[in-house]
Inverse folding.
């Protein structure tokens, strides 16, 4: 059965992981809490069943990727971790290397399965004792048996033989079936109000100036000179005067200059007042009301023992 990367098989694969992206989750050893690597991708079969996690060991072995059967894992959505059951970091190092360039055929998977089967049947035996993957190795089709490292005759007798032509992942539930009921996680969500402020322009005040004209009047007192000619009769009018005193001269003229004042009006500019334009910030509290939701846990187990922590 062919294997596919999960995003190629289903673009909405996150729905299968409670809305989480399984890619990038850290992989830890079950029990020891020792970090092994991170999930690089997930392989599914033609029916969409999870079969392997592609674990990237790059943080301590440059660029190496290995396959972790889903049955040997436990997903903890609360901590975004995948726990590898029965594996240490050193054992992960000895797993056959995965590469997109290698064919994911029965022979390759048998090398992977052989490592995990050996770790299960040998009890305390290390995965390091398994045979490394040979890219050019091929199994004998007539023998129809997977490659397996040397072990005791008792172990070999108790190990089942699988047929390459009829093999199904259902034959090994310990490797490919996830026992969901042992590690289900419910996330309870709650809404909360997030208050932010936005600054927006409400208007614009323009302060300028213009020129107004008016007619101003000013009173200026001016003086003008005029000549007053007054004729009077002298007291000795009619008396005879001596001929030597009487001088008759033609063309005798009396001159007098006459002046007058004129108004000299001019304009001058001066500062009448000064205008200062500033702005101040007034503060006020605006209240907003919105309905928010919160999920509560409902446990329906009448008469059954429940240990709530």
């Amino acid at each position: 059965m062919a294997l596919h990367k999960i995003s190629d098989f289903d673009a909405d694969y996150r729905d299968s992981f409670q809305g989480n992206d399984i890619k990038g989750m850290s992989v830890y050893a079950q029990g020891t809490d020792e970090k092994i690597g991170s999930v690089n991708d997930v392989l599914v079969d033609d029916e969409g069943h999870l079969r392997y996690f592609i674990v990237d060991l790059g943080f301590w072995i440059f660029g190496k990727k290995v396959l972790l059967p889903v049955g040997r894992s436990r997903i903890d959505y609360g901590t975004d971790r995948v726990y590898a059951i029965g594996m240490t970091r050193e054992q992960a190092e000895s797993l056959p290397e995965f590469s997109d360039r290698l064919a994911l055929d029965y022979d390759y998977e048998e090398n992977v399965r052989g490592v995990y089967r050996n770790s299960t049947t040998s009890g305390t035996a290390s995965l390091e004792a398994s045979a490394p993957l040979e890219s050019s190795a091929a199994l004998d089709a007539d023998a129809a048996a997977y490659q397996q490292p040397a072990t005791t005759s008792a172990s070999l007798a108790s190990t089942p033989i699988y047929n390459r032509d009829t093999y199904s992942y259902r034959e090994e539930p310990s490797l490919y079936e996830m026992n969901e009921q042992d590690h289900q996680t419910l996330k309870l969500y709650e809404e909360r109000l997030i208050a932010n402020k936005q600054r927006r322009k409400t208007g614009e005040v323009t302060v300028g100036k213009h020129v107004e004209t008016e007619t101003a009047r000013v009173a200026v007192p001016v003086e003008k000179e005029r000549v007053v000619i007054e004729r009077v009769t002298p007291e000795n009018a009619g008396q005879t005067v001596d001929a030597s005193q009487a001088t008759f001269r033609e063309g005798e003229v009396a001159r007098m200059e006459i002046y007058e004042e004129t108004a000299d009006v001019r304009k001058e500019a001066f500062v009448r007042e000064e205008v200062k334009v500033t702005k101040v910030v007034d503060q006020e509290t605006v209240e907003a009301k919105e309905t928010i939701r919160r999920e509560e846990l409902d446990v329906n187990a009448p008469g059954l023992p429940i240990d709530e922590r």
